Structures are given as structure tokens and as C-alpha cells.
Amino acid sequence: MSTDSTSRPLCPMHHIAFPESGPPRPGTLATGTPVWLVTRYAEVRQVLMDPRFDRRSLKAEDAPPLLVVPNLLDTPDGLLNQDGPAHQRLRGTVQRAFTPRAIARWRPWVASVVESLLDDFARRPQPADIIEGFTRPLPVSVISRLMGLDHADWDRIRDWADHALSGGAHTADEVGTAMLEFGVFCADLVAERRKDPGDDLVSGLVAAGDGLGIDERQLVILVLGLVVAGHETTMTALGNIVVHLLTDGREAWPRLAEDEDTAATAVENLLRTVPLSEGRVLPGLIRRAVEDVELGGVTIPAGAVVAVQINSANRDPEVFPPGPPDLFTPPSVPTVVFGAGPHHCLGAWLARLELGLALHRLAARFPGLRAEFTPETIEWREGQMTRSPRRLPISW
């Protein structure tokens, strides 16, 4: 979706309407590929967890096109497009670094990054842009430290990442050129850490990958994917959440300052109701039936493409109370914000940690934080798989 000078402004992400929950029904991708659209919580979880719906067959010779312009998610050798033992073997090279226990050990230094950024932000003249001063640099700083990329050219990396997850803002040639450059950067990084390993995630991945005999190309793609995913989605989520909290959700601000556990509960509800993307079907949430499967009273034939709409599932009235959520009451069941099953998001616990600490410390430091923007004046970052504000002026 885009606007021109005569069209109405885009609405904040928490106002986006999604398909209503219901039985699987026919739909169509932007490529013209027919799909079965799955919107109810139970069936979304089934598709994501049932091995009869897989990713690998989406790369078969007879598979229909999923993307108008290919991007990182379309890479056949990538982690997302593997299934079964091949997927587990590749995922195993990185999974241990992102367990809840491992993430808990990172809490002190993530908190120190948050505090340092807020110290710097507090010294800015008002109104100040919270995107430039906090929500964008926070996940970049965390993934930089985690992967040993403190001295990397992050302006260049962000440009590559924009191309890697392009949703139509770039041509196929532009995406191909950017991905080639990004791949060379990651290949050099892998070679460097193999020669001179350090105490960072890339060094650990190289050691684990070499020990398991992981293909070099797959290792490079895995590193590339972690660089992108390690900052892109958290940055997007935090920016959109700030829009909600400083407009329609302002009454929740004081409670976020109470303690980290309170903020962590709010994060679960905010992620459920403030989406990253609009109504489009995200490529990573598409599967293909490898045999006939009954799903929600509908028979999905072998070979059919199935697209799950997690935003609809996270609002399924049979599972979640309708209307605005009580941010401080834990969801009664696990949400599908981070997916489910074998491809459940590796970085889910890191994202939760960053978002919880960010919102708690921000609310505690700036109890009077107020928007110097309105929903109509927000300039949006478009053309990606996700949408987020480019800048948000605020005062305190």
C-alpha cells in the first residue's frame, strides 16, 4: 500500500484491519499464485507445526512463484527453506545461543546498552527524534556486540538489509546486486572469524558449522540472515509500539515504569496487537501441502500452497478477548507472533528482552514523554516486508 499527494495518510500499524478469523479459504498472492488463506489460531498453529506442510517443496521445480521480486527469504539454501533433519542440523549451529537461559545471561549488558542510549538521548535538544536516537540504534548496538560488528559500516548494512527484505521498493537487479555485496561481506566475516576466532556469535557459528560439516554457502547465508533479523524486526516493532503508546495507549505509560516483569507482560500483548506488516502475506509464513490434509473442515490437496495470517490468528475471538487488550494481563495461550513449530523465530527471546528493557527504562526515565507528532504527520518507511515510522519527534 502506498499513498500519493491526494490520498489519505497511512494509519498507525495498530489500526490495521486484518482478515477475519474463519475456515481456510481461497486467496491469491501478488504473483497470481492461488493459496489457501488460514486465519484461525488453531489452524495456523497446525500448519506451522505439521510436517505435512513444509517449506522445501516450495523450492521444487513445479513450485509456483511466491515473490514478485526475490529477496533473502527466497534463498533455497537458507535456514527458512529447509525441513526435517537438514533443517535441524543447520538450526542446531545457532539455536543454543538463543535459548532463554542464554539470553538471560545477556540481560546486564543489554540493559547497559539501553541506559547508555537513554543517557545520550536525554542530552538532545527537544523535540528529539526517538527513532534516530533510540529505537533504531538499540537493536543495532545489541546485534553488533553479539556478532562482533561494533566497527562495521551500519549505514551500508542497513541498506543491504532493506534490499534483503524488500517488498517491492527495489528491482530484481537492485536486490541481486545488494545481496551479492552483502554475501561477500558475510563470506569475508566468516573467513576472518575462522582464522582469528573471538568471543562472539559469528565465531561460535563458524566453529559449530565446521564441526558439523555445514556447507560454506549455507553458513554465509545463516550469518547474513542473523545480521538482518537481529535488528530489522526489533527496530520495526519498537517504533510501531512507541506510536501506539504515545497516542491511543498513553494510559499504559506509567505502569511500564513499575518494573521489568510488568513491562515484559505488556510486550507480549503489544506484539500480539501491534503488527509488523500490513495485510500482505509474509513469504516466511507460507507452506505447501505434501499430501492431502484436512484443515479446519477443509481438505487441502497435495501440492497446494497455504498462507497463514498470524495477525488474524492473534486476534481470533475464540482464543483472545476482542477489543483493545489489557496490556498487563498475560495472554491465556502462547501467541503466534514468533510463529510456532520447527521454524519458530530463533531470536524471539532476544527480541522480548530488548523490547521489555527498552520500554521499562524509557518509561521510568521519561515519565512525561509526549508525542510531537500526530498519526497524520508520521512519515512511514515503506516498500519493505514491514512498515515502521522513519522519525518520531517527542518531548519530555
Main attributes of the structure:
alpha+beta, five-stranded mixed beta sheet, three-stranded antiparallel beta sheet, 396 residues, 12 strands, 14 helices, disordered N terminus
The number of helical runs is 14
* Helical residues, percent: 40-55%
Average pLDDT: 92
* Biggest β-sheet description: 5 strands, mixed
Whole-Å distance between the termini?
33 Å
Low-confidence stretches: 1-7
The coarse overall form would be: globular
User: What fraction of the residues are assigned to beta strands by DSSP?
Assistant: 5-15%
Number of strands: 12
Structural account:
The protein contains 14 helices and twelve strands. It is of the alpha+beta class. A hairpin with a 2-residue loop joins strand 6 and strand 7. Helix 2 runs antiparallel to helix 8. The protein is globular, with a radius of gyration of 21 Å. The two termini are 33 Å apart. The N terminus is likely disordered.
How is this fold's topology laid out?
Elements lengths: L24 E4 L5 E5 L2 H9 L3 E2 L29 H12 L4 H23 L5 E2 H6 L1 H11 L6 H11 L7 H24 L5 H12 L3 H14 L2 H14 L7 H4 L3 H14 L12 E4 L3 E3 L2 E3 L4 E4 L1 H4 L34 H18 L4 E2 L8 E2 L6 E2 L3 E3 L1
Parallel strand pairs: 2-8
Antiparallel strand pairs: 1-2, 3-5, 4-12, 5-8, 6-7, 9-12, 10-11
